[in-house]
Amino acid sequence: MNKKVLYLVHGAVIAALYVVLTMLANALGLANYPIQVRFSEALTILPVFTPAAIPGLFLGCIISNTMTGCMLLDIIFGSLATLIGAFGTYLLRDKNKWLAPLPPIIANTIIVPFVLAYVYHLEGGIPYFMLTVGIGEVISCGILGMLLRTVLQKYRKYIFDVQK
User: Fold this and answer.
1) CA distance 30 to 60
2) Count of domains for the chain
3) Contact between 6 and 162 (Cβ < 8 Å)
4) Residue 35: which domain range?
5) Residues 117, 129: contact at Cβ < 8 Å?
6) Which H or E element spans position 143?
7) Is residue 164 part of a domain?
8) For 95-131, how does the pLDDT look when each residue is reduced to its tens digit (9 = 90+)?
């Protein structure tokens, strides 16, 4: 298969999965605001397997944030946090495997609380939002993401390293 086509397909599938998983979390009241456990953030581990995950996650986050009714600055900065996290995961892909989920956890824990405080004017301070968003990211990226990585590692050559 043509590598450019495969790259586009991987990115598109990842974006679609991100949207579906965010919509599921949104239906359960977990996608937005101070308490966030976006199942879709587990996908931020995927840059370990393919660089196509970086634009896929970014686009998926933009679409998800738009579909869940986020304000424009949230769409921009929330999606940038996911982009930064995904790129950081890609950079750490060959390092200690336990470091891979840290970039999205850190990026979202730093950026999203300011969005919650200054865009939505929610009650609670930045430290509180950092705690709640950080816990959600540890659950999504750290726990669910590492479980996903473990499962996908077994099937890596069939999913990501497709030849011909």
Assistant:
1) 17
2) 1
3) yes
4) 3-159
5) yes
6) none
7) no
8) 888 999 999 999 999 999 999 999 999 999 999 999 9
* pTM (global) more than 0.90: yes
Residue 35, Ramachandran bin (φ over 0: left; ψ between -120 and 50: alpha; else beta): beta
For residue 69, how many other CB atoms are within 10 A of its CB?
11
Q: Which of 106, 105, 113, 87 is nearest to 142 (CA)?
A: 105
CATH number at residue 85: 1.10.1760
| Separation CA 48–CA 6 (nearest Å) | 16
Q: Which residue has the tokens 């956890």?
A: 105
Residue 153 in any domain: the answer is yes
Q: Report the distance separating Cα 53 and Cα 16, nearest Å.
A: 11
Q: Is residue 113 part of a domain?
A: yes
CA angle 69, 75, 51 (to 5 degrees): 125
How far is CA 104 from its chain centroid? 7
- Give a yes or no: residue 63 inside a domain: yes
Place of tokens 């950079």: 91
Q: Say if residues 57 and 158 touch (Cβ distance below 8 Å).
A: no
